[in-house]
Amino acid sequence: MNAHNFIDKNKKITVTINGKTCHSTFGKTILQIARENDIYIPTMCYLTKVLPIGSCRMCMVKVDGVDGFILSCQEKATDGAVIYTQTDTLYKERQNIMKLYGVNHPLECGVCDKSGECDLQNKTTEFDIKEQNFTARDQARPVENWGHVSYDPSLCIMCEKCVRVSTEITGDEALQVKFGGYSSSIINVKKEKNYASLGEAAAVCPVGALVSTNFKYTSNAWELDKIPSSCPHCGGGCQMYYEVKRDKIYRVTNNYEFTSMCGAARFGFDYANQGVAKDAKAFEAAVKAFENAGSILFSSMISNEEAFILQKLKEKHGCKLISHEARAYQKFMQSYSRISGKNLYNGTLKALSESKGIIVLGSKINDDAPIVKYHINMASKWHRARVAYLHPIEDTEIKNIVTQFIKYEAGSEEGVAALLAEVLLQEAELPESIRSFLNDLDIGNLSAECNVGEEELFALKQSLSKKSGFSLVVGADLYAHPRAAHIAKIIALFEKYADFNVLCIPPAGNAMGVSLICELDDTIEGPTVGYNVLADFTLSALGGGDLDMPAMNQQEGTLTTFDKRVVPMHVALPYGGYVLNDIANALGLKAAYTIDYTKELPQSKGFKGIEFDRLPDSFDLVGNENRGYLLQSTEIKTDEMLEEVLDIEEFDGAVVYCCNAAEQFSPFTAKCDLLDNKTALWGSQQFAMVAKLQEGDRISFTIDGVCFSRMFKIDTSMKGTIALNPTFDMGLSSALLSSYRFSRLEFERVGRS
Amino acid sequence: MSKIVFSTWRDEFIDNRGKSSEELSESAFKLPEAYHGDRDSKAFIGWDGVAIFDEDIDAVELASQYAAQYQQYSEACGRCAPGRWGGRILYDLLDKIARGEGSHEDIVHLKEISQTMMMTSKCEIGKTVPKPILDLMEHYKDQFDDAINYQKPSKHYRGDTSYIAKVTAPCTDMCPSHVDIPAYIEGVRDMLFGDSLAATRQTMPLAHTCGRVCPHPCEDACRRANLDAPISIMELKRMGADYETDHGLPWHHPYTPKPLRNDGKKVAIIGAGPAGLTAAYYLALEGVKVDIFEELPVLGGEVAVGVPEYRMPIDKYNKDIELVTSLEAVDVYSNHRVNAERLKEIDAEYDATLLAFGTRLSKKVYAHNENQKMGGYWGAIAMLDQVNLWNKYKIGEPASNQLKDKVVVCVGGGFTSMDVVRCSIREGARKVIMLYRRDEKTIIRNTTYEEYHEAVEEGVEFIFHSAVEEIFDDGEKITKLKVNRFELVPDPNGGRAELVKIEGGDFEIECDYLIPAVSQAADLQLLPEEWNIELTSWNTLLTNGKDYMTSRPGLFAAGDCEYGPMTIVNAVGQAKRAASVISRYIYEGKTSLTDNEIMEDHLAKLKVYDKNEKITGWMPGLPRAVSEKLGVDERKTNNKEVNLGFSGEEAIAEAERCMRCYYISMVAV
Fold first, then answer.
1. Which residue of B has its CA nearest to A459?
2. Is the ipTM beyond the 0.95 threshold?
3. pLDDT for B538-560, tens place per residue?
4. Which of B74, B79, B232 to mutate to test the interface with A (most CBs of A within 10 A)?
């Protein structure tokens, strides 16, 4: 093998910056080393989470023995380099650059959204720019409204951060630089899509050029209180700030320098249950309902602490705890652990973003977990990752990321997992029982059953050859699959025996936390109390239940993220009613505040006994995350028994797939004004033919007892006989859905419109 | 007699103003004093200085027009703060002075903005544009002062002088196809791989191919070499092509192909190799109807049947071919051998014909008893045809039928001979020997370091300073060779060392096969005798090397059949130019060059790369990326692609080493 590893990242180097000796490793840029050592170098276009852009030139430094200035954001430091970040000439040139940025920049700071937190404003004062001696003819440039965000080219300094975020992070690839020298601008080449992910691009804009359309001209930045928190929508628990003034959330921002979030986090914030007062009567009824309850039903929109309270109530009163999605996930992970020997999967988002090969199985990842898709995109851009997307439905939205789409038959996930294992674990060292399980697989038959060609699998294997750093991402299609337990074991083989970074994306909200904290049950017994689920007695943060509850942005507590991190949420908006802890106290538990339970979360499952108020919530200077804490994986006794792969149930004819559109996750996101909440049953022309439906037909059908009434619409970008059925708009019924995401469509025609 | 008036080009300082004819200095550089035909240049201005050929030059307008060109061309750049605003200010101030509205304060600002641009710009275009402007402001100060003091327009302001500009870069200039290398590298740096590919395809349709098997002359003109080591230019080209193929994306053409013109005009191309495909591509993008006639059953020419699978996987090359053949305007006729009769028909039927049939006759080694019909005597072209037709298309039979367990001797020293010996290893030969007249250093220079070392690793035995004197046979097949040995004797007068035969150094090699791969010749059977086509002294088709028309009007030639056996990138470059000339010829009935092409030729003559230039503003000592290769045991018994290409991280780090050495040059005519 050639020595092709040209940047030896283990090589220790020492450089001197402004006289200070700095130890680091080769491959890091001068700017990175400076920041590690708390040495300031001014920048206008540098964004830590993307690769160096190099457009502003402010970060230039002087290096001994090298003529000219060196671009510190991009140039790697070499051993022994003697670097100066501040010299008179540098100061003068930086001043001139700031003057250039000021040429024809409109003097409208008074009404600009960015005023008070604007890099241009800050650096103009920092560099003492008192006069402008450069001029150029101005140009007329109209403001553009792109939907979620608006763009004002005359304010734009062409730092290109937004383009990089759109390319490297979110992968929507909507933003591009329109070259043109002085008249360069940013263009949106996918205006028709109105990506909420563009909020992420707006977040990094150092000036007021790219702003949230909704927020524009509503408040001065400095009047808003920043409440740090974590997003509860999908299980990503992304870092965020609610920006609040007089009991109203104006916008959501984040620590964009180091972390990202999806459009739901950024624009899905107005779901609070406001205007609620304490209703003593309803409260008494609730306490009574709990006392009599045979089962407590709850959704995954719940904090770790609340889940813990429910678990305590179960222990005290012997009621059943029912949370369908979390239960399926819990069983899946329990089975997974029997192979992996750990209660948690090994995967992390960081390792995912550093992968050279990624397999996605059983998730419409772009819609199920946008932040996971972002990390896959990062791997695609930074590491040329091969991305194999295995799913019954092709997703054209991620064509730019996927290198191989393998379509399989709905229902055949067990067979597909087995085929993957057979092909990819050929060189792995396996125990006898597992090797013979793989050897005994009837590949021809499986391949026919799943409708996955052997040549496709061969091509997949080929594409991963000679590369290490693989990730396997699996999702919600698997958890409620009738063969979930066995699929979990096959998936775990990749972690245990092939060094894959495996992520089992939780199916909803805080399902991971719930699955770790609660002993969940399978069947409902006796009278029911529902928490954000329709039941005999319903507690609802959506309003309209028997007793109101606070929404997630009205409570303190923690979430468990799919990065296996316990992160804090804080109160963004006040809540006047009763909370679950009040009921628990009435039922004999004792805690002044819900967050008194944070330190009591089960350490046997990996939680730590840290008090809520002691949870850290920050990033260090170079972007290392220090939010909450990481769960500690615990050992599980293994059992390497694998079973025969069963033939699949036929899924012929018209099939529906329960799947929310991008940026919609639950009835809480459904409440948010800024998110697109259109619903329909979306299918291809082919689906329409098979189901004998026409565009505009209204039909009704039932899944798990939940009755859907849907307009059918044709989506010309879709193929095949599977239609997409959103569930986020089903209110308190949403959480009742418990079965496999694909089902045969049996419907009644209701009408036409 | 030089008519140079003034020059600051490349630190040469000439000022002949007001001097008598005996005192005149001449320039050491091939400056474009004559523009084209009978059009003279008044001045040449560029990244390295300014040269004035006309005493009556309007220096103020020249400066302002140069700044204006920067504005116009800044689409290629305009991506850093100092370049973007600085360039605009430069032009606004210069034009203000030129139209008679300037002040001395503007001169101060001009100098200040120039300084900032030169110190802080992202690419060389921003760093170098102020240089000749400052030269003019200094040495033609009186013209600037006049315009300011008298508030009058400069002396020929908005007169009839034309300013013709071209953006180039040292690598682009050196590349025979003039690929916009900094642009495709920037595409990799920005992770906009589609943009990278589209930039390559402006002048180079075979991105997969020239991202894998190009001998990359560009890297010899990479300014980064002045600092540490050249950019791995060639391999970065592959990133865009692999991206398009891996993601199954629609073709990234440099621009949307124009609809088929349907005006009755059509062009014939003889040969579907790199030259033929390239010409077809650029004609078809313009909507010109093209028919390609190919003798072989497969498309792609020598890259298909000559270059082995392990260097150039056919599924990747087929993507390059498909890019061309997918265009509406292109039709291909394979298995269609063109002889003299057929060529006459084609010539009569088509508005222009491009000969691009390569050189497919293996030359002899000129040894005693050399009989090309003798068993065991196997020309490299025929041998590689058999290897590749079987391995890539399952046509014919495997060459292992002949070569397994045999002793193979190849005589060569270039890429073809490397392909012969490495294929012989893969076909199971027991022993493979390469005889080469010169030394190891030269074989590396002729091919690449990687190619030579990989061959050695795979077990090829190289015998340098050797040549076959006599071939022995048993009447049916070759049995052994008598080989002379030579030594390099240095010339005592410091001239080129001479190869001298070592007396008594001869030896014999017993072998089963002798594969001559010394060179190839063009098969000229298809030229009708009565056309009396002019040939070069080495029997290739003669053109002027600018418009690629042969001595017969309407008959063009490009690629190896014109130049002699050369590189893919050379064939592509010639064919691209020929296509451009043909696209006008079929309407105008005469050949012509565009200003861009004229400037391209001027710059090639002047030479853009300066190996003595000192680089500033870049951190030296960042290593050149080397891609991962298959280990010798993983590759020598199969045809798997040896070079696995860059990882994403390697590619981006390598792209970040690129200094974006764009330059603007401009001629005043």
1. B246
2. no
3. 899 999 999 999 999 999 999 99
4. B79
